[in-house]
Design brief:
about 500 residues, 13 strands, about 15% strand, 4-stranded mixed beta sheet, Rossmann fold, alpha/beta
Length: about 500
Amino acid sequence: MSNVVGCMKKILAATFSLVLLTVWSGHYQAADAIVGHQSELKINFVISEPCSLLAFLDALSQRRHTTSWICEWYWKRRNAASRDQDRAMLASYKSVMEPEASAGTFADESGRDLDLNQKILSLAAECKNLDDLLQAVKSVLNDSDLLKLKAALQYFDPIYQELVWRPKLPLLQGQLEDYRNQAVHCKMAECLTAVKHFMNAPWPESRPFVVVLLPLPAGGKGTHGESMGRVQLVELLPDSPFRKHADVVFHEACHALWFSKKDLHAADKLFVTADGRQLPVTELYEGMATALGQGCFSVEAFGVTPPSWYADATINRYAHEVFPLYADYLNREKQIDAEFGRKAAERYFKLFPDNDSAIKETEAYFVLADKVSDLQKFKAEIYRAMPRLREMSICAPVDASESLTGFRGYRQSGGGHLAVLTSGDNLYKLVELDLTMEQIDFLGRKPGAVTLAVRNKPILFCVAPTEAAQQKLFFDSLKRSKWPSPVSFQAGQ
């Protein structure tokens, strides 16, 4: 097998019009001291009815990052007599996938941390039927949740079979064969191997990517892809040829390669400007995968890039801006280094100099609270206030060992935005968050919503007697356009 690296050949003018260059031509001759013998990565395209059913129910239950138009399509086809029972079963399904108490994370074999829903989807990827899936999920669900999931799947499976799976199966099988053949023709695996070297990712050649093709009904606009380590999900409309979704497959595989890095936090921290501004992780991860998938791979495979690269306008614009930098490093067979990270971060802040202070642009958030009575409602309101959130953690009570561990981990990973919702009676517990006694005393004398710098990181404190009053302060603060600067004070103020 040949070791291929490509050279990229596209750069963008300031107007984002493309000027054609070369991409991924030539052969990869990196020294053994850098990469050793580079075997080609493997990609397995599969179809799975249990996995497709789960993804369909995720969309119907309106979980985040799912294809929204499926709901409207579905409810138009259900009679009024069935809808109440449908909604009750969806609520039961969602209660399993989004439990009130954290179910923790599950490590994929690539090293990627998966939430419960992702873990179950990845288990389903290689299941042939519901019996296989229900057997597989016994390892991750308690008996009560297993019964709920079983009931929901058995209820919706015949509906899904009738509306989607059976009508689309002949076409889906044809798409599967086409995707397998075209992936070989366009050297997708070889291009991924080149990206593996570029990222210095430890992904073993013996571990194949599993790409599950999920059928969608006709008539909708927009599809969804998701990377879950070794398993990638890609939704297909009936008229979706390989060329239409190949960049999405590549995009999701690039995520998996990056997240397989054992030193991920250290690698993320390379993306910082000379004056210390860290590239937000959403733009880092999505900008990287988009520049490589929709940019580099599309030019290599098809000679052109797709009309639209990414639905989010910020990421779309940034990926276009940073694309020439990725092309240059691939062309010169270089691996990501501190210089690359600095340039990538500087290009972002040149485009969006104020985004790191804009509340609606926030991509990661951590909340510590005395109490959260309705977690799902609280989370939903936070997502409405910060629509670009990629990661969010909510921990209660403030002084629980799990809360403190999560808080410290978030700080160490470079997370920049945090809030603490507490009462005046519990302020003494904040010493565990590294507040000084002067800061705690100040919060006691100045209740309300106050931002303080704790170890050089801003934290929003919402201090009020009740949970409802604390949350009101918090959500009122999120109505601002910008995050407030930390309050300066002297001891005794």
